[in-house]
Amino acid sequence: MTSSRLSVLAGPTAVGKGTVVQALRARHPELLVSVSATTRAPRPGERDGVHYRFLSDEEFDALIASDGMLEWALVHGQHRYGTPRGPVEEALARGEHVLLEIDLDGARQVRASMPEAQFIFLAPPSWDVLVARLAGRGTEGEEEPRRRLATAKIQLPAQTEFDTTVINDDLDRAVSQLAHVMGLE
After folding, report:
1. Hey, which bits of 11-124 come out as E strands?
2. Across the strands, what pairs with 6?
3. Crossing angle, helix 17-27 and helix 171-182, to 10 degrees?
4. Are 70 and 83 in contact (CB under 8 A)?
5. SS3 of 82, please?
6. What's the CA gap between 3 and 132, in Å, rounded?
7. What is the pLDDT of residue 54?
8. Residue 179: what pLDDT?
9. For each of the chain's 185 residues, which pLDDT tens digit applies?
10. Which stretch of DSSP H or E encloses residue 8?
């Protein structure tokens, strides 16, 4: 069992963080996965407090000013996303396991404010597999995959900044390793 109850999962684009976290939650429904806040409007089917906490610019500014965000960023120059501090600290005070699924810059911000957290890097089995996964999505035009691969090339060496690396080569194996590292199994 790990002594840390806050775990931060990050990794390069297209590594499968969302898929791994969804499978981990199915196996461990007691795990609290933090709900991010955003200043963008809800998309069809999204519910406040479930998919995101949808905040006005003023509400987001107030959280930042009061140190109410563990991490935040402006994404694509349009909307802000971040992790509200309150719900995370409240869950930790109750003794719950909390997982943040965030990007590399967010993980660095959390390390600065909560260095006792456990930092886990989700890595692809190889560069070629990452390229194939991104190409296999087929959800973007030609330029977006190139941009994301350039970002991934910068992100992959950052795994040395993390406490542990889990290789996402097989979903069940990656979920089992993540659960073990987090002290859930």
Report:
1. 32-33, 37-38, 53-54, 69-75, 79-84, 98-101, 118-123
2. 98
3. 70
4. yes
5. strand
6. 37
7. 97
8. 96
9. 444 589 999 998 889 898 999 999 999 999 999 999 999 999 899 999 988 999 999 999 999 999 999 999 987 678 999 999 999 999 999 999 999 999 899 999 999 999 999 999 999 999 988 888 777 655 556 677 777 788 888 888 999 999 999 999 999 999 999 999 999 98
10. strand 6-10
Name the residue with tokens 């406040």: 48
Domains and CATH numbers, the chain: 1-31+97-185 (3.40.50.300), 35-96 (3.30.63.10)
Closest CA to 102 of 55, 37, 150: 37
Which of these, 120, 91, 114, lies nearest to 8 by C-alpha position? 120
Q: Which residue in this structure is represented by tokens 């992100």?
A: 155
179 Cα distance to chain centroid:
15
List strands edge to edge, sheet with 118-123.
Answer: 32-33, 98-101, 6-10, 118-123, 164-167
